[in-house]
Amino acid sequence: MTKPQQRLISLISDLGYVTVAEKPAGVYALDIYLPELHCVVEYDGPGHWARHDFKRDSWLVGEYQLHILRIVAADMEDEHMVVEYSLKPFFAGALEDEPRNRKRRAKENGWNG
Asked: Checking CA distances to 105, which of 31, 40, 63, 111 falls within 20 to 30 Å?
């Protein structure tokens, strides 16, 4: 786990959410999974390929009904902005979309979270 990923976990924990790092999901590992919200925060460092990420995200949404937020390396230069304009709105949206229902549907497709 990278230092920026560790920092993201700390920021999310400061908001009161439990996180699971490197959660397996099919053939993938989710950077940061939030069980309460049934959503994922992914940190995209310089080595990420958008085309691969799009295919991966599409599969994860279709298979497990996960909400996915991607934070790119440049975003982490201003942690306040990440918290206020990325994490908080994303989590609010995930809460509005009935995480329990999405989790139930995901379990029907083999989700073990």
From this structure: 31
Measured between its terminal Cα atoms, the distance across the chain in Å is 20
Residue 91 lies in a domain: yes
Q: Rounded to whole angstroms, what are the CA distances from 103 to 23, 34, 71?
A: 15, 12, 23
Question: For tokens 């994922």, what's the residue?
Answer: 40
- Within a domain: 113: no
pLDDT tens digits, residue range 57-68? 999 999 999 999
Pairing relationship of beta strands 28-34 and 39-44 according to DSSP bridges: antiparallel
Query: Domain range spanning residue 68?
Result: 3-104
Q: Which residues contact 15 (CB under 8 A, 6 or more apart)?
A: 83, 87, 88, 91
Specify whether the CB–CB gap between 38 and 103 falls below 8 A: yes
The DSSP code sequence of 58-97 is HHHHHHH--EEEEEEGGGGG-HHHHIIIIIHHHHHHHHHT
pLDDT at 7 > cutoff 80: yes
Query: Which helix (H) or strand (E) covers residue 8, if one does?
Result: helix 3-14
